Amino acid sequence: MIFDVLTIFPEILEGLLNRGVIAQARKKGRINLGLWDLRDFAEGPHRNVDDRPYGGGPGMVMKPEPFYRGVRAIKSGRGGGRVILLSSRGKLIDQSKLEDLVSEDNLILLAGRYEGVDERVTEICDDRLSLGDFVLSGGEVPAAALIEGVGRLVDGVLGNERSAATDSFSNGDVLGPPQYTRPREFEGMEVPEVLLSGDHEKVDRFRKEKALRDTEKLRPDLLEEEE
Questions:
Q1: Could you report the per-residue pLDDT of 118-174, keeping only the tens digit for each?
Q2: CATH entry, 168-226, from 1.10.150.320, 3.40.50.720, 1.10.10.10, 1.10.1270.20
Q3: How far apart are CA 121 and CA 119, in angstroms?
Q4: Is 3.30.70.1150 the CATH number for 2-151?
């Protein structure tokens, strides 16, 4: 799967994605990551990618031309791609959205900065997505999160394919079960006996029940949405 990112800070993405699961997937050829400097698609000696907003107001707004040129160049080289703008004004990313996106061959991610991007950029986008109801300084961290979330669903990326299937939200809007490892006892807290029983049916039942109880306690809003 190919991920292309248009950003003025490609080094941020490289720093976030050159370790761990995604780095290993890149080495194995399961994931191809293209980091594109938006300034390479800007005009003028200073390669400006932003300007003052019409109507006044604080800050600067990112110009549409570099994004249009960048997307066209990437699509020309890749033969297409689904374009996603990372924006606090976008729809919230959830697990079902990641499962939808993993079916794509190529995702082109647009990472804005400053006070946002010129609204006309949305005309070349297939999606506007957000990490949550809060504002970040730029789209690089959300882009990295999206790549991590989608990338780990790509066939052959995880060492154990069951890992993704048991994650939170992978079995409906329910949190994943709590996990334990050695030592068996730590500061008076012991691993639940059922996990040591070797009875896989009991373990599975315990984890499902505990996941549901924890969801009711920690994220009751998820269960309310299902009703």
A1: 999 999 999 999 999 999 999 999 999 999 999 999 999 997 665 665 565 655 678
A2: 1.10.1270.20
A3: 5
A4: no
